[in-house]
Amino acid sequence: MKAVLLAGMISLVVSLLGTPLFIKFLVRRGYGQFIRDDGPTSHHTKRGTPTMGGALIIAATLLAYGGAHMFTMTPLTVSGMLVLFLMTGLGIVGFLDDYIKISKQRSLGLRTKQKLAGQTAVAVIFAGLALQFPNSQFRTAAVPFVSFVRDTNVNFAFSGTVLGTILFVLWANLMIAGTSNGVNLTDGLDGLATGTSVMVFGAYILIAIWQFNQNCQSNPGVNCYEVRDPHDLAVVAAALMGACFGFLWWNASPAKIFMGDTGSLALGGAMAGLAITTRTELLIVILGGLFVIITLSVIIQVGSFKLTGKRVFRMAPLQHHFELAGWDEITIVIRFWIIAGLFVALGLGVFYAEWVVGSG
Fold first, then answer.
1. pTM, two decimal places
2. Residues of the chain above pLDDT 70, percent
3. 311 belongs to a structural domain
4. Is 312 part of a structural domain of the chain?
5. Cβ-proximal residues to 348 (8 Å cutoff; 6+ apart), any chain
6. Does the bond joining 40 to the residue before it have cis omega, within 30 degrees of 0?
7. Structurally, how many domains does the chain consist of?
């Protein structure tokens, strides 16, 4: 537990104190946000606000993870390093997207195919490595099963070793693309995506610690968990939560800095990585319910317009619909945070209820 607490504290301090320094650096370089003219007019005042703050979140997380292990003299783990690799890799893709937007002063950064290619490359490497490096109990960071709160009977390995691996990589890619783009779409109002991410990562601290306490290696039983490195995954989640908390101080309305695609893709990737390595892949749909709703609003809007020529919402993603309906930005953010908190509470309830029923 010392490493978990240290990771959260270090990332919080680094993010809280480092963000204003990073803001000054970005202002000197002129790295300000480009605002689309077809969006809500209230957003025009945000033009020029420093962006790419996600780089600070990533740095704080990495420093906290390394610092926690250094102070507690504990070894790094495969699971923890893989989640951090996924976060950083997608963050680099997002950074390239942000940099092109800023340097060329346009709303389009990387082209869709380029962005997708970058996300896919990182996700394939992560998924492939996650099936390697078994520990002394022959556990790998991930397994070729579809999981909910633990592994289900849907087993990609039944298709054969090579084909099963390919199917798992495709499944992991779908998850990573879904979560990273979901956070990206949610990051449209000051503090909305950051605050929601804090709740999701907080949930994964509790889940990973519970899995560590009920792990089959140290506490064998009927309903124990076969997760590899659960304690270190809690350290990663704590580092992420602390980094987001510190950043939120400066990202809350009126935002002094935006995370940009650098942050949103990184945080979404980290969520998918934690879901895969804790074997709670489908549970992330509940824990990140707000991200799911906002993503669905875009799918519904685009589908409706292509099929009927009519729009369901005044504007998508969903948060902008309520802006155009006259809601204040802060009101939308707080109410969406409440919804996000309810989804996280529901997800944790489902996770714990499954253990209670299975142990009864």
1. 0.94
2. 93
3. no
4. no
5. 203, 206, 207, 287
6. no
7. 1
